[in-house]
Specification:
single chain, alpha/beta, Aspartate Aminotransferase, domain 1, 2 domains, 4-stranded antiparallel β-sheet, 15 helices
């Protein structure tokens, strides 16, 4: 079944805003528009439930119940237990806290594998553990393609490696990495796995239980929700690592790695992301069964729509003079996050696109390591065009016309 794009766009108030009319949004990798169920829940919480949750009075009980609902429903979609899902201020912050826990748990001389394909959030915090005597091994991408070869990882694994960190997909290369295959390799070597899902999750929530990693992180503000970081830590690992929260919360798994106080309203509003998944599933005649099956159905709807829109854009760019497309030119194996190396300043190109009603960005996007590894001139940066399932064919046509004029 094709995605009903009119129904989808009706779920996002931004498309009805007068100030945004005539603008096509192609900077979704930096943050998506927010869906109406999230906005409604956030508004209701601030109006009716902005109290300390879990006290005996009615408003407080409702506040706590809505926070619990968000955790339970999102965990169900992701295929994990509710206490295996933590909410924190951001994915960068969640990763930093995790790195502190691993730094306490690991011994000098033991090793962590990181990649140079990552956004800095899933690289820098781990690399800093070298100051504690932890060996950092870099799994490197191919300079020409940006590809992360699982065969190269095999050469880095031995009995010293305790953790392998890599992205589900890069925020500039876009290629979707084979998470299950890589996880199996790491587990066979006795290592845990941390996957940065920030650049993949906007294109559909995954069954993390089936994928297999021990840690999976993504950002709700890129999945149509509020500014929160969602972090799955499987129970066996979470209970093994040192508690990073208040000592009296050590027995509650989802509090062990969130030392900052929870943002009650934003956590509650995350249930709106589950509302949105349910609305898409029901509208398109999806399964009536469990949350994982319904989430997978919606994931596949989103991906099919995105792939259909993405391939003509890749075809128009891959052989263009004075443009280097980073990552694969096959839409089936990548996310619709398209970075281009130009023969001039990418920020200026983005400014020129804005004159044609295209909202996009130029720069390094905190992906300095992969861009340097692929030989990008960092003074120029890259032009990044990123979209998601609510992008329409008309907007893609508008983008292609604007690119013809600007490039």
């Amino acid at each position: 079944m094709d995605l009903d794009i009119d129904f989808v766009r009706a779920q996002f108030p931004a498309f009805g805003e007068a100030a945004l009319q005539g603008q096509a949004f192609f900077e979704n990798a930096g943050g998506s528009y927010t869906c109406k169920p999230v906005i409604d829940r956030l508004t209701r919480y601030y109006l009716q439930r902005k109290v300390q949750p879990y006290a005996p009075y009615s408003a407080s009980q409702l506040a706590g119940q809505e926070m619990d609902e968000a955790r339970a429903r999102m965990a169900a979609i992701l295929g994990v237990e509710p206490d295996e899902l933590s909410f924190g201020p951001s994915t960068s912050q969640n990763t930093y806290v995790l790195a502190q826990a691993f730094g306490e748990w690991m011994k000098p001389g033991e090793a962590i594998v990181v990649t140079n394909q990552d956004h800095e959030a899933n690289s820098g915090s781990w690399r800093r553990l070298a100051d504690r005597g932890i060996e950092i091994r870099e799994w490197r991408i191919d300079r020409d393609s940006g590809h992360l070869d699982p065969g190269d990882l095999e050469n880095l694994l031995d009995d010293k490696v305790r953790l392998v960190c890599f992205p589900h997909c890069s925020n500039v290369v876009g290629e979707i990495n084979p998470v299950t295959e890589i996880t199996a390799m790491a587990h066979a070597a006795g290592a845990f796995v941390c996957v940065d899902g920030v650049s993949y999750a906007p294109h559909g929530f995954c069954d993390i239980g089936q994928l297999g990693p021990d840690i999976y992180l993504f950002s709700a503000y890129k999945t149509y929700g509020p500014h929160q970081g969602l972090m799955v830590i499987r129970r066996s690992l979470g209970q093994m690592l040192p508690n990073q929260g208040h000592y009296f919360n050590a027995d509650t798994l989802y509090k062990r790695f969130t030392p900052a106080g929870p943002d009650h309203a934003q956590i509650a509003a995350c249930a709106g992301m589950a509302d949105y998944v349910d609305a898409l599933c029901d509208h398109h005649g999806g399964p009536k069964g469990g949350a994982v099956e319904r989430g997978t159905f919606v994931h596949d709807l989103m991906r099919a729509h995105e792939v259909t829109l993405l391939q003509p854009l890749l075809d128009a760019l891959k052989d263009r003079n004075a443009v280097r497309l980073l990552g694969p030119s096959d839409a089936d194996v990548r996310a619709p996050t398209v970075a281009l190396m130009l023969n001039r300043d990418a920020g200026q190109a983005a400014a020129e696109l804005a004159d044609h009603g295209i909202m996009a960005g130029g720069g390094d996007f905190y992906a300095v390591r992969p861009l340097q590894a692929m030989g990008v001139d960092m003074d120029r940066g890259v032009l990044r065009l990123s979209f998601t399932h609510y992008t329409s064919q008309a907007e893609m046509d508008k983008l292609l016309t604007a690119l013809d004029r600007v490039l």
